[in-house]
Amino acid sequence: MSIGQQVAAEEAERRRADWKRYVELLTDKVPNEQQVSELHDLMRRLGKTPADVQRDESLLTSAESVRQRIAAAKGVITREREARDAVPAFREETEMLTRQRAVRQEELEQELAARNKESAAATEDVELLNRLITENPELLRRIKPATFADLA
Length: 152
Fold this sequence. Notes:
Elements: H1 3-27, H2 33-46, H3 50-72, H4 76-135
């Protein structure tokens, strides 16, 4: 490695170290006098103004806040996928249940229709028996008249 390359490499390493320390100082929540003095030296070496330092500090705070929100959202993609998959599954289940309920409703309606026919026929039989007893009292004296309570 030539001397120029070595100097460039050392300068790059020093600059990386300066930036690392600059960030450490900006993120220290309780700086002391020594750190403030060190920050002034770094500002000169890095070509930073006080306004630059304030912007950098604000940017670091914002970036950390965003990083914390990202950390808090861990698993959000999985939860979103699960929620997205749940919607069609729920829809399919609902459609299946609706079909089952429609079949059961049809069965119940058919049963009701059959019970309605039975009830109507039984009502007619009560009326018929009572009419026969009324029309033939001597012959049907031993047969008790029917009431609708007999059908309950």
